Amino acid sequence: MKPSFALWTLSTAALVVGLGCDTRRSSREGSSWQAPAHETPIRIVATDNGYEAPASVAPGLRHVVYANHGTEIHEAMFVKLPENMSALDFVAAVKAGSLFPKGALDYSGAGLTSPGETVEVWLRLDPGRYILVCWIGDHATTRPVHSLSVEGVAADDATPKEDVVLRMFDYRFELDGVLKKGPQILRVETPGPSMHEADLFRLQDGETIGDMNRWYKTEGEGLPPMQLAGGVLDNHDITRVVWLERPSFPGATPSTAGCRWRARPRPVPSTRPMRTSGWFERSRSRISVAQ
Fold this sequence. Notes:
By secondary structure, this protein is mainly β. It has helices at 87-95, 139-142, 209-217; strands at 14-17, 42-47, 50-52, 56-57, 60-68, 74-80, 105-113, 118-125, 128-133, 146-150, 164-169, 173-176, 184-192, 195-203, 226-232, 242-246, 257-264, 281-289. 8% of the residues lie in helices and 40% in strands. It has a ten-stranded mixed sheet with strand order 1-18-17-14-15-7-6-9-10-4, with no helix packed on it. It has an eight-stranded mixed sheet with strand order 3-2-5-8-16-13-11-12, with no helix packed on it. Strand 11 and strand 12 (173-176) form a beta hairpin.
């Protein structure tokens, strides 16, 4: 879980990749991954009024398909609640200024996604009571969270073979493999030692990294200068791996595709104010996608 926006740090590394194609196809147009016929993914739809999602899902390594059907940018983080905390208690703690309500654990999820975008992630969910929450701007306290239970017989979904391995450090990233034009599967690891998140974006024509910085510093006011295509959110257990299907960026040029990394070191006092905590750091690196 995260506060809105605060201190930024910048990574200037640029990774140039060559043109390539992926010959794999599935029933979902443009996808590089074909799920087994017997598999039933967890489907989550974000709207401007909350989430449409199951009330109960099986534990295990789960395939999550997340779509933003709203008119604003949204994300979907799984947060496991402690026994003595309700969804209302969690929201009340956040409203009171708690960055990490005591006992609640981040379990990753689908990152910032623009309206109309869909992203797929594979992550592990342990048995327990959870909420789905969006942390952009004030959404965590003004938009309904979604309660769900993770229970029953474990249902490990098949994980895709990765095309690229992304490793997130403090505060840089490393890529093992070649990023190519078109959809790809990223295996996301967090050597850390802090928790990290990664969002994929494509700058709109004529926009710059500086425009994006200004947009974030105003907590997302006005039209965003980039298209956000999802990502992976932080996990309380940084040894856990998450898989992400990276979407295609139609018309992307070497100067317009990239990733933004966000990191939150622990431990932190749970009552520090969101806007003035000073420990929340961000970094970005641009990834060039050749035609």
